[in-house]
Amino acid sequence: MSEASSQADHADLVSDIIAAHQEQPGALLPILHALQDAIGYVPGDTLPIIASGLNLSRAEVHGVVTFYHYFRSSPPGRHTIQICRAEACQAMGSRALEEHARRSLNVDFHQTTGDGEITLLPVYCLGNCACSPSVRVADRVFSHVDAERFDEIVKQLGNTAVEVK
Ligand code: FES
User: Fold this and answer.
1) Is the pLDDT assigned to residue 162 strictly greater than 50?
2) What are the pLDDT digits (tens) for 100-153?
3) Is the pLDDT reported for residue 165 higher than 80?
4) Run of H or E residues at 83
5) Helices (H) and strands (E) in the chain — how many of each?
6) Ligand 1 atom at minimal distance to the Cα of residue 88
7) How far apart are CA 51 and CA 54, in angstroms?
8) Model-level pTM?
9) Which of 94, 97, 131, 132 has the most ligand 1 atoms within 8 A of CB, as the residue to mutate?
């Protein structure tokens, strides 16, 4: 898909999303969530369209997008790895795991590896506290993840199905 057709697709998509939420009070956040759910991020070229649709300034929309780390301004990697940073996981060594993940992937949280494969994200409790530290890849939660297990997970992400036991 060319960049021009991609931008046209974004314009059509965001117009549909705006139309679906426009009458809702506080429509900006639901619109941004719907857009990111649909394509994985909030492209910069959609901000003026959203601003115009909601009668806001582009700066106001940009301010909200950048305030919430959840919203991405670039496409995510092929895989997303979430590391739990909440209390139970921290007590069981997730800080060391974070350091290892950052160093081994050469990215910080909210960044994507240079090959576009992996986006590293923080998360705050995966409901798996008894088996912490916890990591989620797609819909799968991994328990007792240390550096070695993390490397194993990353290695196996080359396959579409993650089969780490
Ligand atoms: S604190 Fe990490 S899973 Fe609950």
Assistant:
1) no
2) 999 999 999 989 999 999 999 999 999 999 999 999 998 899 999 999 999 999
3) no
4) strand 79-84
5) 7, 5
6) 1
7) 5
8) 0.77
9) 132
Res. 163: pLDDT tops 50: no
Provide the phi-psi class of 83: left if phi over 0, else alpha when psi is between -120 and 50, else beta. beta
How far is the centre of ligand 1, averaged over its atoms, from the C-alpha of 107 (Å)?
22
Q: What is the band of 3 on the pLDDT scale with cuts at 50, 70, 90?
A: low
* Nearest-atom index, ligand 1, CA of 125: 4
Say which residue the tokens 């240079």 belong to.
114
Nearest atom in ligand 1 to 131's CA: 3
Phi, psi of 83 (to 5 degrees): -110, 130
Task: Tell me which residues have their CB closer than 6 angstroms to ligand 1.
Answer: 84, 86-89, 125-126, 128-129, 132, 134
Band the pLDDT of 70: cuts 50, 70, 90.
confident
Which of these, 113, 121, 55, 124, lies nearest to 86 by C-alpha position? Answer: 124
Which of 85, 98, 125 has the most ligand 1 atoms within 8 A of CB, as the residue to mutate?
125
